[in-house]
Write a structure and sequence with these properties.
GO terms for molecular function: aromatic-L-amino-acid decarboxylase activity; pyridoxal phosphate binding. Its cofactor is pyridoxal 5'-phosphate. This is Pyridoxal-dependent decarboxylase. The chain is an alpha/beta fold and 487 residues long. It has two domains: 257 residues, 3-Layer(aba) Sandwich (Aspartate Aminotransferase, domain 2); 119 residues, Aspartate Aminotransferase, domain 1, CATH 3.90.1150.10. It is built from 16 helices and eleven strands. The strands form two sheets. The protein has a seven-stranded mixed β-sheet, with helices on both faces. Strands 8-9-11-10 form a four-stranded antiparallel β-sheet, covered by helices on one side. The protein starts with 10 loop residues before the first helix and ends with a helix. Pyridoxal-5'-phosphate binds next to α7.
């Protein structure tokens, strides 16, 4: 009875289930040749619908076999070189081992009495990251692990809002809330807009700052925006700078932005969800110069640090700013806490021990190797940019900065509109074929294809191969695209 639970009576069942799982994944890994199967949504719906959830198979081996057919065979594989779509990475093997550990022990890091050393491990990594950022020690920097950039940005902006509202002011809180503004580059991640909405700010609270010619936030435009907000009698809760924008990969001019934030006495949040990996890059750390002057920073370990989802952190220059997230609940013994209770710093209560993944990765390969791995990906993006620029039937939309490459296929005689019309059918055809996964997005008002590289195993030959697939898909879909244009 209860043999399916992880207890002192079931080490053999646990080992057998895990070994079976590890073997299945290892065999699958060796056998994958494409980023995904070519199964249609209808076929996959049918596969899932046919499972009778009220008739258990009663045996992990049988369930593993079923799950292989349902999930593993059709999953989108980020470790395959044909996957070039979004900010997903192949994962560090020590981190996968950490997942197995934390899932089994099931640590919840919210209080000391549920976590002990897990709390200390997370805290060490937070301290390690704030030191890499270079926050002044006098502020006693601190932070907390979160589920991703979206949550880190939300907590950063919540903290900034509360910090602003805690300043003495004649107007009542509710009135001030309606006048708070967040000033952000036009390319800031959409989670900033959503955070503003969740934080009860008005619909027009996020003031977009136009980019300069390089696609990064223009400091002159930022200064103008800051003046306009105050001239209108509104208050700036925060300025958001992005270190690695999702599409262009651009890094806002952090020193100039920090100067302006200081001059206007406003909170600076740096969203380094994507570019945060540069903190350990042996060759490109300087691209983040100025980040140490931020009030808060988002770093996503599950992007450019090769960690499994979820692993992100919000880092704050002054640890005491985390007090805004602190709520008291008697059942979590706040009065008797002998060590930090991480729940005091987090928007979550029950929380996974995600820090162990990064810890075990750092303890296995070390930060320089992670940085070199990211460097390889960034080098590949430069090379891919050259390959695209040199191809007479391709148009490079922007010079690659981090690991994205934006482009359009432009067969001879194709005008701007026709090249744009090809984008979506080509992207869909590649995905449907299962041979490559690329993304599409809109830059400068026009749709384009997007490669996002985070796999150091991908080579320029893979890029050439996928460009050939793009050409073939364009030939097949051109009549459809032309018909769409004629309508
Ligand atoms: C710049 C930036 N910020 C925030 C996010 C959100 O991160 P997450 O998907 O981990 O919530 C992303 C996601 O791509 C991003 O590119």
């Amino acid at each position: 009875m209860n043999d399916f639970l992880f207890t002192r009576r079931t080490p053999a069942q646990y080992a057998s289930a895990l070994h079976g799982t590890v073997d299945a994944v290892a065999i699958h890994l060796a056998g994958t040749e494409r980023p995904r199967s070519a199964a249609t949504p209808a076929e996959l719906e049918d596969l899932v619908a046919r499972v009778d959830l009220d008739r258990p198979l009663g045996d992990v081996a049988a369930v593993l076999e079923e799950t292989r057919r349902l999930y593993l065979d059709h999953a989108v594989h980020f470790h395959d070189p044909g996957y070039m779509a979004h900010l997903n990475c192949p994962v560090a093997i020590p981190a996968v081992a950490a997942e197995a550990l934390t899932a089994a022990v099931n640590t919840a890091v919210e209080t000391w009495d549920q976590s002990t050393t897990a709390t200390l491990v997370e805290q060490r990594l937070v301290d390690w990251t704030t030191a890499r950022i270079g926050f002044p020690a006098a502020g006693e920097p601190d932070g907390v692990f979160t589920t991703g950039g979206t949550q880190s940005n939300l907590q950063a902006l919540f903290t900034a809002r509360e910090q602003r509202l805690s300043r003495p002011h004649a107007a009542p809180r509710q009135e001030r809330l309606g006048r708070l503004r967040i000033v952000a580059g036009e390319h800031a991640h959409f989670s900033v807009d959503r955070a503003a909405h969740l934080l009860g700010l008005p619909a027009d609270a996020v003031v977009p700052v136009p980019a300069g010619r390089d696609g990064a936030l223009d400091p002159v435009a930022l200064e103008r925006a800051l003046h306009e907000v105050t001239a209108a009698g509104d208050e700036v809760a925060a300025v958001v700078a992005t270190a690695g924008s999702t599409d262009l990969g651009v890094i806002d001019p952090l020193p100039a932005v920090a100067d302006l934030c200081r001059a206007h006495d406003v909170w600076l949040h740096v969203d380094a969800a994507y570019g945060g990996g540069l903190l350990v890059s042996p060759t490109r750390r300087h691209l983040l110069d100025g980040i140490e002057r931020a009030d808060s920073v988002t770093v996503d370990f599950h992007k450019s640090w090769f960690q499994p989802v979820a692993a992100s952190a919000l880092l704050l220059a002054r640890g005491r700013d985390l007090r805004f997230s602190t709520w008291s609940a008697e059942y979590l013994n706040p009065r008797h806490a002998v060590r930090p209770n991480l729940v005091d710093k987090s928007l979550q209560t029950t929380r996974r021990f995600d820090a162990l993944k990064l810890w075990m990765t750092l303890r296995t390969v070390g930060a320089p190797e992670l940085g070199r791995t990211l460097d390889r990906v960034l080098d590949l993006a430069q090379e891919a940019g050259r390959v695209v620029a040199d191809a007479p039937d391709m148009e490079l939309v922007a010079r690659p900065v981090l690991s994205t490459v934006l482009f359009r296929h432009r067969p001879p005689g194709t005008d701007d509109d026709a090249a744009e019309r090809l984008v979506e059918p080509v992207r869909a055809a590649l995905f449907d074929s299962g041979r490559a996964v690329v993304a599409s997005t809109v830059v400068g008002g026009r749709r384009c294809l997007k490669f996002t590289f985070l796999n150091p195993v991908t080579t320029a030959a893979d890029v050439e191969r996928v460009l050939d697939l793009v050409r073939a898909a364009a030939r097949d879909t051109a009549p459809l695209a032309a018909a769409a244009g004629a309508r």
